[in-house]
Amino acid sequence: MKYSGDEHDARHLAHLLRLKLLRFGHIFPPEWRAVRDLGRKRLQMVQTRTEHVLALETLYARQTGGRIGGNAVKQLTMEQVATWNWLAEATVAAQANLAMVQAAEVVIDNLEQQLRQRVKAQPDYAILRSVPGIGDILSTVIMLETGPIERFTSAGNYASYARCVGSTRASNGKKKGEGNRKNGNAYLAWAFVEAAHFALRFSDSAKRFYDRKKARTNGAVATKALAHKIARACYHMLKEQTVFDEKRCFS
Asked: What whole-number distance in Å separates Cα of residue 115 and Cα of residue 135?
């Protein structure tokens, strides 16, 4: 098949772009790529469990006008659902949701055990665990999604990859547009926002930082700012192989 000059130039440009992406991208070793993908599979199963928990909560509210919390749903048994004296079809629907929740719980527990065995001996895992608000799961996700910290040239570059930096373009104080907010790693973005939420419970310094930001903006922006702060701290910790220093992070 022959191509015109313009078509040839376009294909050549696309080839060069692919080479550039491959040149500057990072390919994980196969054994660690499999572990990382296992972590992503765990998140997928958590999302599946949440979907069915919410469905059962909605069904309960529709049938009774009352409310049942997510933790209560996870503690239910099939026998308890059968005693609710609903229409047969509604009971079967509730039991179907509960069966999916229970099955997901078993799979999630197994995946977490597998991940813990694989990452617990890694130095980066212990370093990340020293951050208030980052426990077993978040340290595992951050470590596996980050990979070698040397591939990031600066803390700002890493925070951008973790989607902790805004994509808004402004001129003279006015918003002029946005960049591609999907650039970067969605799993790291989720992990650092979760870390920010938990840090508010375990760190007074993080809470004060959040409160100052919230007073000037709003809760969502303050949470993102805290996530950005934690992401930059994690970069320096992994780069220098040092544990979390609260004064250095929030001074």
From this structure: 13
